[in-house]
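Q: For a teaching handout, I want to show students what a protein-ligand complex looks like in token form. Below are the inputs, and the small molecule is manganese (II) ion. Please produce the holo structure.
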Amino acid sequence: MIIMERGATSEQIQQVLNEVSRYGVRAEISNNDSTIVIELVGDEKKIPVSAVASLPGVKAAIRIETPYKLISREYSRYVGNSLENLKIKVGNVVLGNGNPVYIAGPCAIESETQIMKIAEGVKQAGAHILRGGVFKPRSSVHSFQGLGGIDWKKAEEALKWLRRAGEQYELPVVTEVRGEQQVDLIAEYVDILQIGSRNMYDQDLLVAVARKKKPVLLKRHFGASVEEFLSFAEYIAAENNKNIILCERGIVPVGKGKNFTRYMLDLGSVPAIKKETYLPIIVDPSHAMGRSDLIFNMSCAAIAAGANGLMIESHYNPEEALVDGSQAITPEELGEIIRACNRIYETITPKSNLN
Ligand code: PEP
Ligand code: MN
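A: Here is the structure, written as tokens, with manganese (II) ion included.
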């Protein structure tokens, strides 16, 4: 990372860019409070830091070794305040400003009436953002793949319903992008692009969604370490898109015999990740538990652990849901969770920080 002196000329900046480009490293220029910072994407180790630091107009050249330096607090220390959390604005909703943000909706969109009715219910319950799957990742090709599995026309129709439901109830909307070929279509209709757990490692998909310059909701792979999770978030940041919402959704459980939950919700990752990065992190207790009867407790625990929000699958009649009905809760239950979580948030937050 290279920090230029205030008042560095464009010739001086160009000279630094020429110098670093000789080492096969990509440079992204960012302007923080009128200080020009040149962020380096690539293998910085080859760059002679002291030679770069002595170029005219350069205030400091710093080598940061973490694989997720662009999103790290360590890095942000040099460009601003490392204690400051990134606030991501989506419509009228702000993620990361302290107050928990609640994302809710069905696992899969099934019809216009279904998404409209659920949007109305979750809005009333206090949710801020509407979710709904169109291209569903499924373990079996014989299961319902979401309306996107029928054909492209049906997918676009479902995206229009989602958009319409969001507009009607003033809820920004999010859906999963399962493959690169879906990026353009989905980006036309949604406010946030979701990368599902199974695709956390798909670098090309991460780059493609990042380039849409919309917020990206990145779910942790169920087999990924926290370091890997952050390292793959870095692929999005490296495209100059730092509007990344991390999502903890559980990892593969251990041991023999019945596990009682679908995954093991790693809530310890939440405060640990918040120490490492300024990005907001939310928790999805639905996919972690796989059981509607455990969502209340784990939602409360997630907020107590410091999560910036929750993503919860909701349906007015979970038994009727085509996908993941066993973990879906009703809008009424969602309302109870939101009320309890808000009380927990107020209890654990110093009075001076409450907005
Ligand atoms: C989802 O949120 O719809 C989903 C499929 O979750 P995950 O990628 O965490 O399994
Ligand atoms: Mn689901």
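A: Two things your students might notice: The longest strand covers residues 26-32. The chain has a mean pLDDT of 95.
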